[in-house]
């Protein structure tokens, strides 16, 4: 009986050991299967994430920028000097001289702006040689400062975008820069002409798109205008405005898509947006280069420009608002938009509070009436408009480069803090409205800053209210 019990115990023990071994084997198999499943899922998530990153446009940074300012006062001019020069031309009627004087008084331009010496002589030198000299002086001055600030070698620049409205020589402006700075032979060069004062932001948008297609690249954007080629020597009133408004100026900006450049860059571009209304005849003819009845070329600026600017702005912010506004503002804007446009209700259009979306506004210095219209339409404070009005006062209308002088003003005033959002808004012939939205990556320290405003920023802001008797 004891023998039977002993055998039964041994059989049971053997069976138990076998079951334990099988259980342990099953447990190990399950662990391996779970580990394989988790590893597969992690690999799949990693592949999806890498694909997502690959399909996302790379981030574009503004390393730094520079605005041209003459090293001396050889190109400085006052309103009185400019009026005297116009009189010496001997081509303007007495009535038109009075009109130009009144426009200068109300223009918002200050007592010291810059024009090339070629147009301040008794007989102005309006020729290709002087036009080229002016443009080279401006763009070389801005680029030299930019390269000095960024420590980027010219050979590292892979994309070059230059914009100028009315001066398009051969070789091109891009060629002039490539020759001067010995850029590499495969640099991608693009000259933008005839795009009006809005071309500065448009060029940024173009460079951004190129950088998103060409990894590990630098893009340099140069914006300028040529006053020598823009002087009008006739008596068509609508063409005389340009003589009073435009001044010598330009800017150079360095954009990068190198991730390593984030730590040393000033800004990151968040949005760019373009609105083009040339399909509308009223907008198309608002700013028009043509010959007058005496076959003298000039640029006609319509008295309807403020209304056209208001119209294109309304269309532009309809597209921009959903991209930048907080949810509360989006809902208010959407309700009024649907009510007026879809349901046909007589509802006043809601003007979004863009001060909730942006900390700083750089609105193109077209002219005082245009700035007044923008301030009213966007319901901005005088503080918000200060960079634009002071830039118009100190440098005049420098066309496409104006928004960079305005951003330089904000920096010189110590206004730019990390995380601040900046809205650059430009208008131009066509009629076009273009925007660039930036976020500041760091505080801009005034103590180490050197830009076009550094020497006399302590004198601003100033009162730019025109004389009541003008």
Tell me what you see in this structure.
This protein is an alpha+beta fold. Helix content is 45%, strand content 17%. The protein is built from 14 helices and 13 strands. The N and C termini lie far apart (132 Å).
Any descriptors?
470 residues; alpha+beta; 9-stranded mixed β-sheet; 13 strands
Order of SSEs, N→C? HEEHHEHEHEHEHHEEHEEHHEHHHEE
Strand content: 15-25%
How much helical structure, as a percent, in the residues? 40-55%
DSSP summary, beta strand count: 13
Give the overall silhouette: globular
Distance between the termini: 132 Å
Low-confidence stretches: none
Spatial strand order of the main sheet: 5-4-6-7-1-8-13-12-11
Largest sheet: 9 strands, mixed
Mean pLDDT: 89
Radius of gyration: 31 Å
Number of helices: 14
Structural class: alpha+beta
InterPro entries: 3-ktacl-CoA_syn, ACP_syn_III_C, FAE1_typ3_polyketide_synth, Thiolase-like
Transmembrane segments: 27-53
Organism: Acacia crassicarpa (northern wattle)
GO molecular function: fatty acid elongase activity
Quick structural summary:
The chain has 470 residues and is an alpha+beta fold. The protein contains 14 helices and 13 strands.
What order do the helices and strands come in, and which of them pair?
Layout: H1 2-55, E1 61-67, E2 76-77, H2 79-89, H3 94-106, E3 113-114, H4 128-150, E4 157-163, H5 173-181, E5 188-192, H6 199-211, E6 218-224, H7 227-230, H8 237-245, E7 250-256, E8 267-276, H9 281-284, E9 287-291, E10 297-301, H10 305-324, H11 327-342, E11 360-363, H12 368-378, H13 382-395, H14 402-412, E12 421-428, E13 432-440
Parallel strand pairs: 4-5, 4-6, 11-12
Antiparallel strand pairs: 1-7, 1-8, 2-3, 6-7, 8-13, 9-10, 12-13
């Amino acid at each position: 009986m004891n023998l039977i019990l002993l055998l039964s115990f041994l059989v049971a023990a053997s069976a138990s050991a076998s079951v334990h071994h099988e259980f342990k084997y099953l447990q190990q198999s399950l662990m391996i299967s779970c580990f394989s499943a988790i590893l597969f899922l992690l690999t799949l998530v990693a592949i999806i994430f890498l694909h997502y990153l690959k399909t996302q446009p790379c981030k574009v940074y503004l390393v730094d920028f520079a605005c041209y300012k003459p090293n001396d006062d050889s190109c400085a001019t006052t309103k009185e000097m400019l009026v005297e020069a116009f009189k010496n031309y001997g081509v303007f009627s007495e009535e038109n001289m009075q009109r130009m004087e009144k426009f200068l008084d109300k223009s918002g331009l200050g007592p010291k702006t810059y024009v090339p010496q070629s147009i301040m002589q008794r007989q102005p030198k309006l020729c290709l040689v002087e036009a080229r000299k002016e443009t080279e002086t401006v763009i070389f001055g801005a680029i030299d400062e930019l390269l000095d600030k960024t420590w980027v070698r010219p050979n590292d620049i892979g994309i070059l975008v230059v914009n100028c409205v009315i001066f398009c020589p051969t070789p091109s402006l891009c060629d002039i820069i490539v020759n001067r700075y010995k850029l590499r032979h495969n640099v991608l060069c693009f000259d933008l002409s005839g795009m009006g004062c809005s071309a500065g932001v448009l060029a940024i948008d173009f460079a951004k798109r190129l950088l998103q297609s060409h990894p590990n690249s630098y893009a340099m954007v140069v914006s300028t205008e040529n006053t020598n080629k823009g002087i009008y020597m006739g008596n068509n009133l609508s063409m005389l405005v340009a003589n009073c408004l435009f001044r010598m100026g330009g800017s150079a900006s360095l954009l990068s898509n190198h991730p390593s450049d984030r730590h040393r860059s000033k800004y990151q571009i968040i949005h760019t947006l373009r609105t083009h209304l040339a399909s509308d005849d009223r907008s198309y003819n608002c700013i028009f280069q043509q010959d007058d009845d005496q076959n003298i070329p000039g640029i006609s600026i319509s008295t309807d420009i403020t209304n056209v600017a208001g119209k294109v702005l309304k269309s532009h912010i309809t597209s921009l608002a959903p991209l930048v506004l907080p949810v509360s503002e989006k809902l208010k804007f959407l309700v009024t938009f649907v009510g007026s446009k879809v349901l046909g209700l007589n509802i006043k259009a809601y003007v979004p509070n863009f001060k909730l979306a942006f900390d700083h506004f750089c609105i193109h210095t077209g002219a005082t009436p245009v700035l007044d219209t923008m301030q009213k339409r966007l319901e901005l404070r005088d503080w918000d408009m200060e960079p634009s009005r002071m830039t118009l006062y100190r440098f005049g209308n420098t066309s496409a480069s104006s928004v960079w002088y305005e951003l330089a003003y904000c920096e010189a005033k110590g206004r730019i803090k990390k995380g601040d959002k900046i809205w650059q808004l430009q208008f131009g012939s066509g009629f076009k409205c273009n925007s660039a939205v930036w976020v500041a990556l760091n505080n801009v320290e005034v103590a180490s800053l050197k830009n076009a405003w550094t020497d006399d920023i302590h004198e601003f802001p100033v009162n730019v209210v025109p004389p009541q008797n003008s």
